[in-house]
């Protein structure tokens, strides 16, 4: 009997430790991440967010080599069509800048584009717990995170978060 109780407690604690923390604010290490603009300039993520403060921001974390990301693009475009009031940030985890820029052109992505040099396993990716892309986030006009994670454009939580 005691073994069973201990086993249940162990399983419960193991499952709890596997859950991803859902953030309502970006960690400072993520805010300090240096990203690259389409023009080759370097900018901290915090300054990107400040640039669009006052707007609801739809963030699409993607890469041109990612089949799931490419599959989601038509739905992102549909969201853009239905919600033109949002600001759209595309954060690329491509391995090469040339691939990132070619992907923007190939898929005709309209929005603000930034390249994350550290990639998926780097500082930024770890700070916000990226383990899969695409990753969609919604940021409130005050800079707080409204939706921390969605991996498809059809998730109910994403569709609710973008309603104004």
Task: Please provide a written account of the structure.
- The N and C termini lie far apart (53 Å).
- Strands 2-1-5-4-3-6-7 form a seven-stranded mixed sheet.
- The chain contains seven helices and seven strands, in the order ααββαβαβαβαββα.
- A hairpin with a 5-residue loop joins β6 and β7.
- With 164 residues, it is an alpha/beta fold.
- The longest helix has 17 residues.
Short account of what is shown:
With 164 residues, the chain is an alpha/beta fold. Helices cover 40% and strands 21% of the residues. It has a seven-stranded mixed sheet with strand order 2-1-5-4-3-6-7.
What is the CA-CA span between the terminal residues?
53 Å
* Rg: 18 Å
User: What is the chain-wise order of helices and strands?
Assistant: HHEEHEHEHEHEEH
Mean pLDDT: 87
Percent helix, as a range, is 25-40%
Could you tell me the strand content as a percent range?
Answer: 15-25%
Instruction: Summarize the main sheet.
Output: 7 strands, mixed
Physical arrangement of strands within the biggest beta sheet: 2-1-5-4-3-6-7
- Uncertain stretches of 5 or more adjacent residues: 10-20
Shape: globular
Q: Strand pairing plus helix content: what structural class?
A: alpha/beta
Give the number of DSSP strands: 7
The total of helices stands at: 7
């Amino acid at each position: 009997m005691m073994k069973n109780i201990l086993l249940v407690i162990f399983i419960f604690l193991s499952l709890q430790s596997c859950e991803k923390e859902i953030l309502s604010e970006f960690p400072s290490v993520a805010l300090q991440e240096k990203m690259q603009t389409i023009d080759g300039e370097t900018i901290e993520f915090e300054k990107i967010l400040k640039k669009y403060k006052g707007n609801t921001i739809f963030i699409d974390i993607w890469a041109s080599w990612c089949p799931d990301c490419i599959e989601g693009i038509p739905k992102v475009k549909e969201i853009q069509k239905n919600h033109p009031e949002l600001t759209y940030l595309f954060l690329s985890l491509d391995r090469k800048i040339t691939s990132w820029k070619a992907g923007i052109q190939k898929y005709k992505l309209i929005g603000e584009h930034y390249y994350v040099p550290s990639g998926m396993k780097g500082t930024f990716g770890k700070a916000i717990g990226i383990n899969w892309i695409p990753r969609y986030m919604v940021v409130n006009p005050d800079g707080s995170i409204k939706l921390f994670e969605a991996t498809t454009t059809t998730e109910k939580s994403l569709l609710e978060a973008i309603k104004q």
